[in-house]
Structures are given as C-alpha cells and as structure tokens.
Amino acid sequence: MRKSRKKRTFWWWVIGIIAVIAVGLGLSSAANGGPLGKRTITLGTIGPDVQIWQHIAKSDQAKKAGLKIRVKSFTDPVALNKATASGEIDVNAFQSWSYLETYNKENKKAQLAALGTTYLEPMGIYSDRYHKLSQVPDGATVAIANNPANTSRGLLLLQSAGLITLKKNFGPTSGTEGIATNPKNLKFKEIDDTTGPRVLKSTDLVLIGNTIALTGHLNVLKDSIYHEQVNQSTKNNINVIATAKKSRHNKTYKKLVTLYHNQQIQQWIKKKYQGTKVNVDKPLSYLTD
C-alpha cells in the first residue's frame, strides 16, 4: 500500500515538472514569435501612416506572412511611445531615428528599440504668403516644432535653404541657441508640429514634416517653397518601426519590417503618396554606424 502511494506521489512530481517545463518553453516560444506568439499584433501609428498600415494589415502579403495586425490610430506621438514602452501597444511606426533617440534620452525608464527602417520623407518650408525664398522679408516669423528632434531638423533645413547658418557644434537635439547667423532676423515661434498645416494662414513660414503635411492635404514635392533633398544618406531622418526594448528580438515583430518592404506594398505606397515616402531598406547598423 505504501509502495503504491509512493509511486503515485512520484508520478505526480514527474507530471508537475513536465508541466512547468512545458509552460516555460511555451513562454519562450511566444517571446520569439512561436506558437503562442501568433496572436494579433497591435500596431500604433499617426496620420497618413494609419492608412498605410491598414492596407498592409488587410493585404494578401500579410496573410502569406502569417501576420494578424490590428492598427490603432494616435494623435500624440509621446503618448504612443509610452504606450509602446508599457506593452499596451506592441509596435509603432511613425517616428524618425532621431526622434526615437531623443525620446529614449528623455525617458530612461520607458525605453524603446528600433526593429528596422521604413522610409524617408522630406521636411518642407511652407508659406501661404510667399512663393519663393527670395520673397521672405526681414523679420519674418517661422513656426518650428517644439520637440528637440524636429526643431534641430527644421533649423538644418533653414540652413540648407540659405536663411541661417548654424554653429559648428550644432547637434541632433540642438535648438535655436545653435544659430550662428540670422541675416534676415527671423523670429521663431514654437508649435506642436502636428498643428503645422493649421497655422499656415497666420504665420509667414511653417516647417512641416511630410507625414503631418499630408494630413493637411499638402504635397512636399509640389506645395513647399523649399524641401530637404530626398536622399537616403540623411540617416537621422529615416523612419523606423519600434517596440519596447525588452521585445527587440521578437521574431514575429521583425517580420513587419520585411512585410513593409514587400515590392507590391511599396508600389501601392508610391502611387498613394506620389513618391513622397522614399523606401529605405537598410540594416539597423546603418543608423548606428
């Protein structure tokens, strides 16, 4: 009788150990995009990129890749990054490499990591009052983004346009204090960059990134009076797909990068946005080197 009880106890222990191991393997598999990882991926994005990812989510290419994607639209980029860091959102696709780096510097306890590159789209100088740079008067007001990454990018754009020059130590998060010369005595007005198209009528010049410009029915290649050169070497301005740092090795999430660069997906994007979103299929080392 005692031997029988001991045998039963022994086998219960064996079953328990096997169950624990199985759960552990299952969780590991899920973390790396295995069987339990085949749940729906929640992807957060902003503006016109919502349409892009809705198209991708419904595409045959997504089905062939075995990916189920739920797209969630945001209006606040900081809120989207924090939701991603907390795990409320699995991945996001809206920000440039420099914006991501700036966010990480300012949010040490809610870090994100890039999964891969997507596109480069130029920032433009827009005006409802002037049609070319030579018409910009002395003392004109320039509306510029109030976040470090886009402030820096906007000032570099103004330098490229010949309106200002910047100090030698000007960096990716520098602000107006980094201006060396301002021959037209331009005045700067900081705005939430998502409001750029709405302040065109009340401001001389507005610096607007293309994602936001598209929401205001503006085409940077046609409607701006000056824009960044569409050049893939401007790596700080390349957009990325990002996730919480702890999920940076998730194989399922990484499949989104490959899916984005699918030839048929890219043909749709090019036609839809008239070439303003230049495909950049580069390894992450390209951004960090």
From TrEMBL:
Its main location: membrane. The keyword Secreted does not apply. It comes from the Bacteria. It holds the Pfam family Lipoprotein_9. Keywords: Lipoprotein, Membrane, Palmitate, Signal. It is found in: Membrane. It is a lipid-anchor. GO terms for cellular component: membrane. InterPro entries: Lipoprotein_NlpA. Belongs to the NlpA lipoprotein family. This is Metal ABC transporter substrate-binding protein.
